[in-house]
């Protein structure tokens, strides 16, 4: 995901602490196959995906102290509330 991995880590903070091992073989395969960067995929295959901007970042205004905005599992049109941040992403939005 090249330069977009920080979006994943913002969504799933615990993933930062999981070792993913040696990926040299995968990087070499990517080079040999002349794979396009993830930005190409976003521009040409999935252009409707909205990428967050760097201004404030995802969730920057959605945390107050140790409380985070939480959707409580509701998908749409549900209530939200402030709950203690649990740093696992999921239903919560927060800053780093």
UniProtKB/TrEMBL annotation:
Domain of life, per lineage: Eukaryota
This protein's record includes keyword Zinc-finger: no
Disulfide bond listed as a keyword: yes
GO CC list: Golgi apparatus
InterPro entries: Ricin_B-like_lectins
Any GO BP: protein O-linked glycosylation
GO molecular function, one term: polypeptide N-acetylgalactosaminyltransferase activity
Gene3D superfamilies (alphabetical): 2.80.10.50, ppGaNTase-T1 linker domain-like
Descriptive protein name: Uncharacterized protein
Keywords assigned by UniProt, alphabetized: Disulfide bond
SUPFAM superfamilies attached to this UniProt entry: Ricin B-like lectins (SSF50370)
């Amino acid at each position: 995901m090249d330069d977009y991995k920080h979006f994943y880590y913002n969504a799933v903070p615990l993933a930062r602490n999981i070792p993913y091992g040696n990926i040299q073989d995968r990087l070499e395969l990517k080079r040999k196959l002349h794979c396009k960067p993830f930005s190409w995929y976003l521009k040409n295959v999935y252009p409707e995906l909205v990428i967050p901007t760097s201004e404030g970042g995802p969730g920057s205004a959605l945390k107050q102290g140790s409380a985070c905005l939480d959707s409580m599992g509701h998908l749409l049109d549900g209530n939200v509330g402030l709950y203690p941040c649990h740093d696992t992403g999921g239903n919560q939005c927060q800053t780093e």
